[in-house]
Every structure is written in C-alpha cells, then in structure tokens.
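4.2 Preliminary Data

To establish feasibility before requesting continued support, the project team ran the inverse folding procedure on a target of 372 residues. The structure was first converted into the token representation described in Section 3, and no sequence information of any kind was made available to the design step. The complete token record follows.
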C-alpha cells in the first residue's frame, strides 16, 4: 500500500509539473493530443455548451457563455493545486510507515498546510525524509504562486491586444461587421491606402493570435465585450475582404490582401487543430448569387468596382471554399455567429447606438476627406 502511494503520488506530481510547464512556460504549440488541459477544456466546454444550447437566445445566454473563459482558467489552476496537494499527500503517506502510522487524511491536511505555507502543522515529529518532502512542497507552492501571478497579466494582456483590433473594426466594418461595409467605407472617401494599412495590421494580428492561442488555448473561449462582435467574426470579415480584393477590384493592389489572407488562413487552421475542430459545411450558403449581385452594386456605388467578368463569382467561391469550412467549424464549436457579407439596414454601429449617436454620425459624415 505504501509503495503504491509513493508511485501514484510521484506520477501525479510529474504529470502536473509537465502540464503546467507546457501551458505557462513553454512558448510553442504542443502536438501531443493526450494532455490534461485538453481533456479538461474539452469535457467541461462540452457540458457548458450543451447547457447554453438549451437556453433561449439573448443576453442571458451570451452572459452564460462569456463566463466559461475565466472559469476555465480558475478550474485549470484549481485542478493543478488540488493535484499537487494530493500528490504530495500520497508521498507523505507512503513515508509514514512508523510504529504510529499517519492516516492519509492527516497527510492530506499536512500537505495543504505545507503547500500554502500556513505553518500550523508541526514538523518536529517527522523523519528527515518527510521533512525534506515538506520543504520541497513549500517551495513548490511558493514557486507556483509566483508563476501564476506573472502568468495572469500576460494572459489578459494578450486578450486585450486581440480585442483592441476587434473593437476598432466597429467604425470601419459595422456592428456586426461585414466585408461589404468594410470595403465600401474605404471606397467612399478615396481611402484605398488606409485599406492596405488595415489589412497589414490584421496580418500582424493573425500572427499574434497564432502565437498566443496556441500557447494559451483558453483564450479561444474568451468572448468579446459586445455581443454583436467576436474575434472570429472579425477574422471572417478580414478574410472575406481579402478574397474580394484578390478576385479583383479596379485600381486596387492585391499584394497586402494576399499576405493577410495567407496569415489569417494559417490562424484558423492552427486553431482548428488545437481545439480538435473539424471543418464543417454551412447548411445555407453565406453568399447567394442575388447577394453577390447586391454586393457588387453597393461596392460600385462606393467607388470599388469588382472586375466585370463571368468567372469572378466562381473565383470568389473557390477562395471561400479554402477557409469557410474551418470558420464554420470553429463557430459551431464555440457557439459564435459568423457574419454575413451584406450589412443589415436596421443595425447601427456600436459607436452610433447611444444617446446623440445619430447626431455624431451626421457630423462625422459631413467632415470632408481632405482639408479645404
């Protein structure tokens, strides 16, 4: 019994140390499929999303889904702490084979007291070996606490950097965002150069998402500040816009669109691999032929003219087939909504949807693109 406790305690500690090292300290994707963090998120999210799917659409459902991201982090850290305490308790129990053996419950209390460095338990009656284990556990508790204190600010800084770009897209692409609005607003005021700058920023954003979300997969479950926005919807709009530019818009260079499209597609493919999400096909097409014709008309009115040939729509469909299935799979898994290609006439941008928001919009629209 004591030998089993020693072996099982050592294995448990080794697994937790390894998992915590990979999650908090190793800055790269782990290709091993069987991981504690993967199993924890997979089963808890399946339960959480199952409950959410049975709730009515609305604020309560969105709030419920938004809680999972922070709670998943608490569950992860709490699981590690409990596992470490139990692991050290098993080792202490295996070493307490004296004339007066100590029960596992007493060793569990000792382990918790030592891990949190409370100092209420006496070590005077212990053997030197048990004292050494207690000292190592106390050091582990202090080190774990220090790593967590440094880990949380980094995590929320990465979340903040991701969401900053999502919020900034509100004025450029609408709320919820869509590719037609994004391109039209850059065409109305002769701002093609600003579109290239925007796509360049989102190329960098995609690279940061790959780096951060592969290292810290729990960030994928953190939702945006507004219910009509999400990092996945923003990424979809950027890829839609890049696809339109690559199909061909008069007098518009395709270089930056090609670079951003490549980086963004890499981001969604890698996220699908990390979250074990398979590409899916949407039951209804995101862009029908009639929607495509309406989109062409709106872009033409803004000064952005899609090349006028019969193969343009087919080329756009070919581009869409390379990324839409991954986006649909992520949207279904994370219970997020993918945006359409056309704006809704009844929706106001978030910055306009407030007292005196319409007045602010009229004043902004009246400002000339160039100083007179």
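Position-by-position output of the design step:
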């Amino acid at each position: 019994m004591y030998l089993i406790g020693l072996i099982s305690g050592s294995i448990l500690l080794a697994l937790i140390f390894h998992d915590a090292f990979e999650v908090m300290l190793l800055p790269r994707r782990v290709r091993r499929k069987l991981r504690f963090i993967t199993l924890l998120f997979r089963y808890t999210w399946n339960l959480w999303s199952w409950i959410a799917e049975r709730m009515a659409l609305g604020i309560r459902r969105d709030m419920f889904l938004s809680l999972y991201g922070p709670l998943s982090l608490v569950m992860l850290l709490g699981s590690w702490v409990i596992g470490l305490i139990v692991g050290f308790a098993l080792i202490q129990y295996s070493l307490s084979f004296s004339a007066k053996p100590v029960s596992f419950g007493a060793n569990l209390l000792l382990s918790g007291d030592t891990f949190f460095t409370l100092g209420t338990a006496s070590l005077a009656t212990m053997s030197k070996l048990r004292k050494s284990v207690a000292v190592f556990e106390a050091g582990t508790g202090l080190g774990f606490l220090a790593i967590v204190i440094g880990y949380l600010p980094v995590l929320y800084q990465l979340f903040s950097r991701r969401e900053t770009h999502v919020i900034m897209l509100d004025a450029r692409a609408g709320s919820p965002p869509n590719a037609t609005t994004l391109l039209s607003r850059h065409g109305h005021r002769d701002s093609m150069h600003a579109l290239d700058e925007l796509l360049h920023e989102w190329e960098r954003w995609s690279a940061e998402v790959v780096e951060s979300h592969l290292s810290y997969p729990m960030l994928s479950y953190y939702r945006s500040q507004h219910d009509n926005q999400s990092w996945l919807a923003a990424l979809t709009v950027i890829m839609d816009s890049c696809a339109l530019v690559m199909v061909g818009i008069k007098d518009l260079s395709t270089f930056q669109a090609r670079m951003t499209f490549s980086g963004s597609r890499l981001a969604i493919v890698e996220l699908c691999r990390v979250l074990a999400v398979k590409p899916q096909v949407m039951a209804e097409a995101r862009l029908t032929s009639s929607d495509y014709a309406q989109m062409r008309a709106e872009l033409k009115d803004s000064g952005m003219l899609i090349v006028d040939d019969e193969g343009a729509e087919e080329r756009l469909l070919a581009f869409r087939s390379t990324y839409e299935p991954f986006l649909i799979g992520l949207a279904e898994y994370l219970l997020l909504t993918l945006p359409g290609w056309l704006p809704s006439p009844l929706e106001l941008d978030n910055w306009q949807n407030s007292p005196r928001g319409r007045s602010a919009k009229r004043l902004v629209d009246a400002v000339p693109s160039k100083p007179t």
